[in-house]
Amino acid sequence: MNGPVRILHVFGAMNCGGAETLIMNVYRKIDKEKFQFDFAVNTDIPGYYDNEIKALGGRIFCHPSPKDNIIKYIQAFNNTIKYYGPFIAVHSHVHNFSAIPIIIAKFNNVPVRVAHSHSTLGYHGINVRNVYYFICKKAMNLYSTNLLSCSSDAAHALFGKGILKDVKHQILLNGINLEVFENILENQNIGYIKLGLKEKSVVFGHVGSFSYPKNHKFIIDLFRDILKKIPESHLLLIGDGPLKKEIEESTKLMGIYDHVHFLGIRDDIPQLLNLMDVFIFPSLHEGLGIALIEAQAAGIPCIASNNVPKDANLNSGYFEFLPLNNDFSQWQIKINEALQSKENIISPQERFELIRKKGFSVDSTTKILEEIYG
């Protein structure tokens, strides 16, 4: 075969989520003389990464939404594999629904078929929906050649108990690009000025899509409580999503809008992280939390909900897991501790070396995927 082999990644859309960002980090690093990525999405609405994908030589195949018409989706996906291949691998990132593209890939003789779990969202009980999820799990386990998970919790949620002993399964850590953190400018004054902050401001932050699992309502309720005790506080919310307008309106009704900065999707996240004093991550469920890895790379004290997998704590400095409830007193205590803990954060060189050793560098992730595809 002349030229690189092609891998088809399956997503809902190529927007700026954790799984999409992980694969784009790998895409930028991977040897493109050997491997080329294409993307199958379930929408014709342009995604955040679409232009970069095309610039890197990738193709984007838009399929009908399976929620609207599953038969049309199956036909379209099957045609993509038949007429736009050959693909050496189909790598699916759409949780339970990965069963469908994996089965289609199997019957089109795609040699490498990867189902990838990025979430701890699980399903329990007996009803029609959960029977469907059970069948999907069995199909993925049967027809995939490789099963990947970002954490052991994410593995159990999608593939079932005992999956960690399966020879087809392995944990693939969400690698980040450490180079951008190594090159962060230390001068924070420029960032403060751009955001209209004063140097004495206490800055809290969160990175994540405005969607139900990220729990932005908890963040702004907590921040309102913080603001009563620390009036010079500001909150940076980085990301976009369906609930953004609702959260914006809530901050206005609470009277805290002037202290909350909705920054949208950004390509300067390392610089913005460098402005924060405490990183807040109260997810309702989470595969791992790549934003937490980035926050630790930037040397920020982190406070996360205990729904986040324990693997997210790299032991690089202050990190707390707390329960979610309506009483913010425990969060306030830990926030005060975090604000006093910056001197306990290890040096940048030590942080970066720790992250590499633990396998959270994108170089490690890319190497593993090259071995799977190759």
Alpha carbon gyration radius: 21 Å
Number of domains: 2
- Kindly provide the name of the CATH class of the largest domain: Alpha Beta
* Major pleated sheet: 7 strands, parallel
Number of helices: 15
Low-confidence stretches: none
> Can you count the beta strands?
13
Protein structure class: alpha/beta
CATH homologous superfamily annotation of the largest domain: Glycogen Phosphorylase B
Global geometry = globular
- Span between termini: 13 Å
Q: Largest sheet, order of strands side by side?
A: 3-2-1-4-5-6-7
The sequence of SSEs as H and E is EHEHEHEHEHEHEHHEHEHEHEHEEHHH
Instruction: Determine the fraction of residues in helical runs and give it as a percent range.
Output: 25-40%
- What is the overall pLDDT average? 91
CATH architecture of the largest domain: 3-Layer(aba) Sandwich
CATH level-3 fold name of the largest domain? Rossmann fold
Strand proportion, as a percent range, falls in: 15-25%
Describe this structure in words.
There is one protein chain. The protein is α/β, with parallel strands linked by helices. The chain has 2 domains: 5-175 and 361-373, 3-Layer(aba) Sandwich (Rossmann fold), CATH 3.40.50; 178-357, 3-Layer(aba) Sandwich (Rossmann fold). Helices cover 40% and strands 17% of the residues. The chain contains 15 helices and 13 strands. The chain has helices at residues 18-29, 50-55, 70-84, 99-107, 128-143, 152-159, 178-182, 189-195, 216-229, 244-254, 269-273, 290-297, 329-339, 348-357, 362-373, and strands spanning 5-10, 35-41, 60-62, 87-92, 112-117, 146-149, 169-171, 202-207, 233-238, 260-264, 278-281, 302-305, 319-322. Strands 3-2-1-4-5-6-7 form a 7-stranded parallel sheet, with helices on both faces. It has a 6-stranded parallel sheet with strand order 10-9-8-11-12-13, sandwiched between helices.
